[in-house]
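Notes to self after the call with IL:
- keep both proteins in one doc
- input above output, always
- annotate only the second one for now

Protein 1:
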Amino acid sequence: MTTGTRPEPEPPGDDALADDFSTLLIGIQRMLRRRLRQGMEQPRLRGAQVELLRLVTATPGLRVSEAAEELCLAGNSVSTLVNQLVAQDLLRREVDPGDRRAALLYATEAAEQRIEAWRVRRRALMGELVAGLPAPERTALAAALPALRGLAEGLRALPEESALPEESALPGESALPGESAVPEGSALPGQRALSEEE
């Protein structure tokens, strides 16, 4: 009796892969936010507010126009976000010495502490989950990172007219503790923003 070799399963088509990836990504982001929100007492921030804070924390001294371009948002939308965050003492404006009509944006110490505390908690939670995966799956996850970065860059490179329309809820990524979704199209450079603090 001869035993045949079981054929390798066919890889999913591009459409099926895209659907599965998108569904998993949103589900992971949603569950991650829920876990990290537990025990948080700070008032929620909106997704666009979080993305702006993260951007300004990483690149202090941005102009509103530069932040708008990076987040793929209209300048007046970013101005509104700036006003909201300044009122919460999470962002401060300084006059641009090179152009006194423009303002430079800086995160306050409170904002920096909030974002860093969230990152520490997220890193600890995800680190524990990743460590619990079998070694081959951890290897596969690491091998997929370049492809994921490529997807992020591809989204960023899309011309404005080809981008998805603004939505009332951002397709989940991370966000600071329990932030509620807000209509916009911001994201990690070139991606949609998260609806919660990252």
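Protein 2 (the one to annotate):
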Amino acid sequence: MRILSLILLFLVASFGARAETYPAADGTRDPQRILTVYSTLDEFVSRPLIEGFQREFPDVTVVYEEFQSLDIYERVIRETDEGDKTADLVISSAMDLQVKLVNDGYAQPVPGIDVDHWPDWATWRRSAFGLTFEPSVIVYHKPSFEGRDVPRNRADLIALLKSSEAELYGRIATYDVERAGLGFLFLARDREHNRDIWELVSAFGASGVKLYSNSSAILDRVADGRFALGYNILGSYDDCPAGLFCPAILNAGKSSKTQPFFSVS
């Protein structure tokens, strides 16, 4: 069985499959010196990381392919089981799926990494590694909430959705749990910590909730006022577009631009 090294990142999911090739910096064209990466992280966000890697290893070509987290999980299993070439490195926001790949034998330990001083949550069997720690939060469109209180917990949010159903109808967005592994993970965590989560889900449905497979599409629409609110958005969006009240990473220092709405995980 072909197995791959697996790195787990808690990062925003991305749009469908897209591939970019970064030729070796020194001009090497050795087919044995190609690093294939499957990732949910937007390529433009990963570009500095790739360029830094190639400064250290100028003879390595990097093939970077973007997928949804569920697509990555299924593709790794299918390619490996069929004996086809698969990724050398996987970067995904769906940590539960990443850990399952490790547990099911689709990843191999990475030698030479000192993880003895890492937090327990940040590494699994020396095959999966968590390199960020981000809250999920709510973002909202500031002009849409002028003159009204912003809900600070789920009960307040449920009350808002029920009292303003007509006004907010079609202007609420969250992850599509069928397409986005991270969205499914967030919903599972919500269910663990909130016994009224299905009342919130019902209120979302009555409000005509819009479902997306990535955070960036929701943020764009909240920023320009098409949506009033986005639920379960990753909290790493510190540079907010105009008109958007969005979260900084919690416990990472104060920001003059942003602050959390509230954490939901």
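Annotation: The radius of gyration is 20 Å. The first strand starts at residue 18 and ends at 22.
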